[in-house]
Design goal:
Helix content is 28%, strand content 19%. By secondary structure, it is α/β, with parallel strands linked by helices.
Length: 212
């Protein structure tokens, strides 16, 4: 079974997280959500382990696990997904554990998929991924060094570095569906993507995948 690890933190954008998790599950992908703590969180419930993640619009989500780098590596999952939301993205981008995790997925000999959306794309900078086509929410565009080929596109798929992971980046809550449908197509094929899209009853003309 194809497996995906989806990170979450206090301040994560809840639409980007839930649309990714829910839609990947619809495709038969086994998903695990992992909470990335930021020191002693002033938000999450102290009565649960992992703690509740309080998202950007105060929606509270109980993750499956707290991030354990030893149990979260690319030998256990086929894809790593990093949602945005400025608060969560800052936590993830500043986490040494997340930076190392991204690098391990990127360099794994069995080609993996890394998805980043909205401000979550900031992790590509702090993880020191090599320059390649990328996109993000416009609010963080100026943070990307010149060696990245920044694109004003809904979804950007990069296989720029031979033998490394495929990096899929996207812009924000409004592009969350084409983002996750692109992940499904890469992980499971176009037929599976179309199988998931149909029953969801998108209006005619809605962009639901890559390429555009």
């Amino acid at each position: 079974m194809v497996k995906a690890l989806i990170l979450i933190a206090d301040g994560t954008e809840e639409m980007e997280f839930t649309i990714a998790y829910d839609t990947l599950v619809r495709a038969g992908i086994e998903c695990t959500s992992a909470f990335v703590p930021r020191g002693l969180s002033p938000y999450g419930s102290s009565d649960t382990s992992p703690p509740l993640a309080v998202c950007s619009r105060q929606v509270k989500i109980l993750p499956d696990v707290t991030l354990d780098p030893l149990a979260a590596g690319p030998e256990k999952y086929d894809a790593l997904v990093i949602p945005g939301g400025m608060g969560g993205a800052v936590t993830m981008a500043g986490s040494t554990e997340v930076q190392n995790l991204v690098r391990s997925y990127y360099s794994h000999p069995e080609k993996r998929i890394i998805g980043m959306i909205c401000a979550g794309s900031k992790v590509a900078i702090t993880a020191k991924l090599p320059g390649q086509p990328i996109t993000s929410h416009p609010s963080v565009k100026s943070e990307f060094p010149d060696y990245f080929d920044y694109k004003e596109q809904n979804v950007v798929v990069s296989d720029a570095v031979p033998g490394k992971a495929t990096l899929v980046t996207s812009r924000g809550p409004g592009t969350a569906f084409p983002f996750v449908f692109t992940l499904i197509e890469l992980l499971c094929g176009k037929e599976k993507r179309d199988e998931v899209v149909g029953p969801m009853m998108f209006p005619s003309g809605t962009v639901t995948g890559y390429p555009f």
